[in-house]
Target: Transcriptional regulator
Amino acid sequence: MSTLSVHGLTRRVDLFTLRLFLTVVEERQIRRAAIRENIAASAATKRIQDLEDIAGVQLFERNPSGVAPSAAGEVLARHLRLLFENLEDMRRELGEFSEGVRGHVTVGTTGAVIIQYLAREIGEFSRNFPLVELELKQDANTNLVRSVVAGDVDMAVYIVSPDIDDEPLDSLPYRVDRLVALVPHGHPLGEQPEVALADLIREPFIAMHPNTTLMSDVNRAARAIGRVLHPKFTINGPEAARSLVEAGLGVTILPECMVSLEASTRSTVLRIPEPWTTRSVRIGTRRGKTITAATRALIRQLTEQPEQASS
Model:
């Protein structure tokens, strides 16, 4: 057999033969692969033999039931899968010039991020790109990185937190999420524009569900100052928390953008001047993976939104 040469490989092997090779790897039998690719079995066998001669290595181990890729064959198959993925991406991107951006994008995120930012912005994206089908999957913030890596979603919009490791992602900033305190009108804490967490959690505290990133942050900050939070009420949504505050039943912490102008007239909003209350929201895709034109268009629109849109 000859020595493998990239120059020789690209000049002497056509894409159909490379596709046939991958089909043989999948089917583990040349005859079945030939049927799938609509080619005579003898012609398929000849192409595989020629490919092995050009590669200079044995690509398949022959056995009574068919064939199995050798170690060298597995390496070639891995690179060819990437090659054909890139060719498909190229086809889609070239198709944009005549067809417009189209495709399907699955976004994983939390309920809070949907309410705060994505609902409005995805609606605008759908109007701008009507050929793109969008799917939202709501999940806990701690599950989002795993969903991207597993391929369950194309991208995640997640809150940076010590609870998650986003090293497997290519990510970029999306929004800054600030937490504020809400206290009833006339409450002594409301006499100043800001409040420390230590003072806030001495009051009857209205907490969100303990599995939320918000409550993880609050509990972590409380432990850092040697305190344990004992909520008076635990509820599932910001609307209920605001209602309880307005009724004078306690205090709470919410993302600033979830406190509407109307709500701020019925209770007092206070800054919490501590670093943990400023949180980064990021967009992540699987590290090193080529993203589709539709995903790229969505990321571009989300990251080009002005910061004040989240307020």
Remarks:
- The first strand starts at residue 60 and ends at 63.
- The domain at 176-278 is CATH 3.40.190.10 (D-Maltodextrin-Binding Protein; domain 2).
- The two ends are 67 Å apart (CA to CA).
